[in-house]
Amino acid sequence: MSYVTQTQKGKPAGLTAAIAINGAIIAAIMLSPVVLPPKIKDAGFTAVPIDKPVPPAPPPETKQTVEQPPIVPPIYAPTPIVPMIDPVDPGPTIGDVMADDPLPPAGSLGEEPKIAAAAEIPKIDPKPPVPIFRAAVRDPRYAGKFQPDYPRGLLQKEIEGSVTVKVLIGTDGRVREAMVVRATHPDFGAATVKKALESWRFKPATRDGKAVEDWQTLSVRFDIN
What we know:
Elements: H1 2-10, H2 12-31, H3 94-100, E1 133-134, E2 137-138, H4 152-156, E3 161-169, E4 175-183, H5 186-199, E5 202-203, E6 205-207, E7 210-212, E8 214-222
Antiparallel strand pairs: 1-6, 2-5, 3-4, 3-8, 6-7
């Protein structure tokens, strides 16, 4: 404690000097002019106009073009031509007939009416019936005698062939005439004609049930079995 006491007592002038300095500083601060910040000039309020939105332009009007139908010229029908017909005489009227032929008086029968004779209908003669014809046919009782004899020379050579003949069949069923129409060999034709005239038999043809002559064309083959 003695140390502290000594220290405070030893510097009284220094404390005074410190107080004086602090007071000078405070006075200097108080006496110094106050520097204010520069004033900012008020620019004022400026009204800015706001543009109103412009409405969109209306769409252009579209004009609908209506096609006019083509003008068709009127069609005039020609006036029909009516032929001129001469007037027809109507003949006597009822009054004229009554005046010419007056009725008989009452109570009188008068003459009997005349009845016109009916016209005779011509008689039509009926057509004659169509005759019924039946052709001749081979008699089955002579079927085994129809094939002609084979010519010997052609048989030895083993030659085959055929013949077509036209024959006239009589009312008795026999062949009256025979002629060769076609033959592969003359010997075949000769053998066939000979056989037809000698051995062929038929049931004769008939017309309305009566036997008649009949022409027929027949064929024969010559084959080696």
